[in-house]
Amino acid sequence: LSYALVNLKPIRPGHVLIAPRRRTMRFNDLTSDEVTDLFAQGQRVSKVVERLFNAESLTLCIQDGPQAGQSVPHVHLHVIPRHQGDFPDNDDIYDVLEGRRTKKKLAHIDNDKRKPRSAQEMAEEAEMLRKELSGWNEGAD
Questions:
Q1: Is 76 a catalytic residue?
Q2: pLDDT digits (tens, 9 = 90+) for 78-125
Q3: Measured between alpha carbons, how far is 16 from 49 in angstroms, rounded to an integer?
Q4: Catalytic residue among 15, 76, 78, 108
């Protein structure tokens, strides 16, 4: 019911998105089964991301609607590996996610300073994750 994809402009290396296959804009529009699967796959992916990217912690979040900073009109769960000192203040990641401009000049999600990765870079990361997850999405539509 859900799939994972690597991020074109990741906030941190290893930033992955988990999304339901059925396109819905808001979290409350998901069925109970879709919610269960979204978080089950989020947990499964987060274990691999944490290990492969040597993360000390993870930020897992959903921006549910435009006023919450949702820039893509489709529910998705961010899985972002975290390390000590990766942001000046730990919660600065939310400014980046929501596209808020701060005095700290952080490169927010829609900022041109964050250059998109090449298709090859994304394919290599996706393949590495796919091997680690081995078959988690087999049999899905």
A1: yes
A2: 999 999 988 888 788 887 877 655 545 444 445 556 678 888 988 888
A3: 8
A4: 76
